[in-house]
């Protein structure tokens, strides 16, 4: 299993207390849903061992403070805010997408009902803004504004994704635009928010944000590869899981738009109303590969990571911080889960 | 019909352009849901005549700028933000409460689906924060923080209201706490946000907020009276509508907690699983009255308005502004719709 870089593994210790303090301000009913969703408690409110999730976004937020020469602790409000916003978006997305499972547990809406999950999502989104606006220092309002703008892009991405469900044809550009909102916007914000909180100069925060946008695209490209060709024993998801749900992921959309004979056969399989059998799932994966969807996705992930590295190389960063950002970029591209 | 005070009627002209500009930033799918919900377009996206709603909150926001000696235009971002937040909460509440009608039209979620309405609500909430943080002037971040805190209280109120649905007994204190969140928090914010944006001194903004909190409680108390004893021809709702839906409104909860023989009979009627017949609805209204629920609500509304007036009297306000706030308070208590 590809290991998280060391700074990522240590992040929980720094962020968890601040995150728990923020969420602890919610009313008791909303708290219960949020605590379950964050992996702190079970459906009965009993404490759970170990937190869920990779803590990738908070780790990047802490790193982005160091990019501006500030101590990582100064970005704690930013780390908490990006984690809260991520949690909000997953809570609402699971309802909208009808996903019943999240991180190997029943999704919050299946446990507490849709109303409880809608409300908890609303509360976490508001809390993210409050936490940023309460941060000491000059960059607090600018950080809250960056967070709100990222949230608007995230919502636009999810909106496009919902629209795809009603469409016969999706272009690769539209699919990339969807991912730029749904995944990359919040990662771009995570990579810059610590520097923004520290009132760092605009060229630095812009470079970090652009690095994060490319990192975010690469993250999703790799995620989409794992969703088809990932090892179930490592990803924790069933084999070919994205194909089972007929997800319009980037490799699929690239394949469907390739104009090859394989893409026509794939379209026939993918638009069928009936569930796909095991052999048909394997066939769909082969067709995506034959139509060039896998190769395009791998190449695009490599191109995005290359561009992310270039942006970082041109930014005025302390060397150890640059090295850690590159470490995270490596993790994102080489990870197997 | 009790008329709106003049300043209220003129508000739409000032606020509408700014509101439309803000909502116009949303992605096209989310925009469509929001524009329908705000009464600008029909379900097909065609423009509708005349905007919906009383514009009470934006009117108070503009007035609160004048309270601090600033021109009403300076509070436009505040007026837009409170209207956006109100719109967000109605969008999500209608889904959670299963309400299929809003302002004499099908609720947005029945037209665009739950997912579209969840997402549009999320977008409007984020937009409220963005609009405030983009406002020029020193008070912008403080205003966004006040708005986020009010939104958190609003969510806590809705959370308590959802909890009531699963409960056998609700105290009058709990019901008032619910209303303090669900209705009064945003009105309190509306009454002060213009002054906050103008970076007015804390004693003034606190007095305006307290005025608004009492005004908001009175508003809901009157609303609850109209929901039972209002004239359907004027309110636009069916007679006894709150009793049909077995709403745990303040007069009902006051009556149920009165310890009178009438309250016991009311409890018997109200907890029955079957829908109530017309004669039973009339009987329930009579029992609420006999149990003192109507008298308590009227007295509490008067007490709250009296307290609101006292708070205003002690605040350092220009006389014409105080007069207009009192005008709004009169409208809130004397209105018949």
Account of the 3D structure:
2 copies of one chain form a homodimer. With 337 residues, chain A is mainly α. Chain A has a single domain, classed as Orthogonal Bundle (Farnesyl Diphosphate Synthase), CATH 1.10.600. The first copy, chain A, contains 15 helices and 2 strands. Chain A has a two-stranded antiparallel ribbon with strand order 1-2. The longest helix of chain A is centred in the middle third of the chain and has 28 residues. Chain A is globular. The first copy, chain A, starts with 5 loop residues before the first helix and ends with a helix. The model of chain A has no long low-confidence stretch (mean pLDDT 93). Chains A and B meet through α4, α5 and α6 of A and α4, α5 and α6 of B.
CATH level 3 topology of chain A = Farnesyl Diphosphate Synthase
> Could you tell me the strand content of chain A as a percent range?
under 5%
- Average the pLDDT over all residues of chain A and give the rounded result: 93
Overall domain count of chain A: 1
Secondary-structure arrangement, i.e. CATH architecture of chain A: Orthogonal Bundle
Helix content of chain A: over 70%
Alpha plus pi helix count of chain A: 15
C-alpha Rg of chain A (nearest Å) = 20 Å
Largest interface: A-B, 39 and 39 residues
- Give the N-terminus to C-terminus distance of chain A in angstroms: 8 Å
Q: Report the count of strand segments of chain A.
A: 2
Structural class of chain A: mainly alpha
User: In sequence order, what are the helices and strands of chain A, one letter per element?
Assistant: HHHHEEHHHHHHHHHHH
